[in-house]
Amino acid sequence: MFYKLLATNKDITLTILRVTLGVVMFPHGAQKALGLFGGYGFEGTMGWLTGQMGVPYFFALLAIAAEFLGALGLIFGLLTRVAAFGVFCTMVVALVLVHLPNGFFADKGGFEFQILTFGLAIPLILKGAGSFSLDDTIAHKLEK
Question: What is the pLDDT of residues 25-36, one digit of tens each?
Answer without folding.
Answer: 999 999 999 999
